[in-house]
Design brief:
Bound molecules: coenzyme A
Order of helices and strands: EHHEEEHEHEE
Oligomer: single chain
Number of domains: 1
CATH topology: Aminopeptidase
Distance between the termini: 33 Å
Number of strands: 7
Strand content: 25-35%
Length: 170
């Protein structure tokens, strides 16, 4: 996909919270299919409980970044602080937009807007996530990319993103 066809906003508007909240349900449902994910965190009405949606709209250290394509929300990233690092807490591309580079373009933009240390954790069985989070850190990291097993079901990748000129900010 042409980079110009996907843009990333630093913070979703309040009016986009309901749409992103709905997409989040599809995202959590998709992730729950991987082994070792806790599929038991649903309300009696079948909705996944996600405790941080409101926090994403109020806490200054959290970012809820929509990926926009021709007026539609094609995906989103939720970013939070984890110690001294930023963590890609959630990352989703709507199925109809997949395989065209939205994840790569969106992820690149989000990472480059936040130079410094990053961590991403993904399920070991999630091939697309592994592909993306192998490729992007190698492309954008200023320095070493560290990866390994987080727990029996998950892998982590840690790296530092330089600023857009490629150097690390203080
Ligand atoms: C993972 C995900 C974000 C990829 O989004 P996408 O827009 O399809 O990704 P892109 O088209 O930008 O592809 C970028 C790279 O990701 C990897 N990738 C994407 N889809 C893949 C697939 N089906 N299998 C293996 N690697 C894949 C590849 O490295 C790809 O580069 P390439 O096309 O040159 O091989 C998307 O599949 C998704 O939302 N999945 C469900 C939610 C999820 O797993 N989120 C990640 C949680 S950490």
């Amino acid at each position: 996909m042409d980079d110009a066809l996907v843009s990333v906003r630093q913070q979703a508007f309040l009016g986009e919270k309901e749409t992103i909240g709905s997409l989040l349900q599809f995202y959590l449902d998709e992730l729950s299919c991987f082994p070792g994910e806790n599929a038991g965190y649903r309300d009696p009405d079948g909705k996944y409980r996600y405790l941080y949606l409101d926090a994403c709209w109020v806490e200054p250290e959290r970012f809820r970044c929509p990926f926009l394509s021709e007026g539609s929300i094609a995906g989103f990233a939720f970013v939070r602080m984890a110690g001294a690092s930023r963590e890609m807490a959630e990352f989703y591309v709507v199925p109809g937009f997949r395989g065209w580079g939205v994840g790569e373009a969106g992820g690149t933009e989000v990472l480059q807007r936040h130079p410094g240390p990053w961590a991403v954790i993904f399920n070991k069985q999630n091939g697309p996530a592994r592909g993306l989070w192998t490729r992007l850190p190698r492309k954008l990291a200023a320095g070493r990319v560290e990866s390994g097993e987080m727990d029996p079901g998950h892998e982590y990748v840690r790296f530092a993103v330089g600023d857009r000129r490629g150097s690390l900010s203080a």
